Target: GntR family transcriptional regulator
Amino acid sequence: MERSTARRARKNTGRVTLSDLAALIGVTKVTVSRALNTPELVSVNTLERVRAAVQQTGYTPDLIAGSLASNRSRLIVALIPAMAGTVFQETVEALTTGLAETGYQLLIGQSGYDESREDALIDAILGRRPAGIVLTGVVHSQHARQKLRESGIPVVETWDITREPIDMLVGFSHEKVGKAAAQHLLAQGVKRAAVIAPGDRRSQVRTQAFLKAFAKGAATDPAVAIPVVTIPSPANMGDGRRGLASLLDEHADIEGIFCGADILALGALIEARARGLDIPRELRVVGYGDLNFAKDTDPPLTTIRIDGTRIGKLAASLLVDRIQEGEVDQRVVDVGFKLIERETS
Model:
């Protein structure tokens, strides 16, 4: 009889509802809801019956209906440029853990590196009314910024810096990263440098800052451009090999190279070794990201470390405080970065 009722529920509605469970067990919807959400308020016998019915029917709670009824969503949406982008993994893991500890679930979306899609993606997110939004980078579309502000949904922009965040921000200066890479190579005595970098906006900010700082520090002729190879985002190891090959074929006197991603630096190291170059005596290499393989390359890679875990933890904390308290003590947090000096420079 109980199984027949469960089958009819699935056939008529497509899913087992709270009402179906209540009818199946012979109790009220309120009792079932208490058993699922506040089990300490029901008897052990009732709790066991509800759990048995849930297991039998495969019932799953309707979180959307629940959030509408309470007017509070427990869903946080985060947009990252690429699922395969390991540079963001630490942030996603810390964000997931930090939100889960306070009862929020994280939904991750892939935004890609094409900023022209920004408005459409943000419209899609706002239409679902999440409790909060985490964005990778600073939103530049004025239309999107206005809609986000008017939505009333707490927003944290990450992995970048701006004086005018939409709401909250946890990030660092890409301009300072590029400058730091240039100053490091200059300190190592490099007089002729080059760049291999992804083409996304944040990477290009680093590149332009590097070019400006290196040209100034090396006192080079302004008419002589520092060679740059730009790679479509997301980049891969082969791009690094081909990028360095192209640079060396045309500029054999290059002494140092700044790679806008560690995966490009890895490819560059492989190409340098294939050509018999001595790293760092003949070519110094600096990466960006300090990914998990950076310390294990041959030789170990000098790179710029971003504390992705701290970014994720702070973003989660700010969002939860903003959602639950309405205010936060600090709206903008600059986590900075660290140049990790190893044996490639």
Observations:
- Residues 201-218 form the longest helix (18 residues).
